[in-house]
Write a structure and sequence with these properties.
mainly alpha
Length: 56
């Protein structure tokens, strides 16, 4: 599997924001991602992702 941006984020985001009707597999993917995010503990503050330095 590739990095999420290349794997599904770019094509799926475009379809979501344009109001396209999503297929059942696309909806299953969205629901799976949402379910996984719901399992993360609640945190406060600003978070960054990446491999570089954290901004000041």
């Amino acid at each position: 599997m590739g990095y999420t941006t290349n794997f599904f984020q770019k094509p799926l985001s475009g379809r979501i924001f344009s109001g396209d009707i999503l297929s059942k597999p696309e909806m299953n993917l969205i629901n799976s991602v949402k379910a996984a995010l719901d399992k993360l503990p609640s945190q406060k503050g600003t978070f960054y992702r990446g491999l570089g330095d954290v901004p000041d």
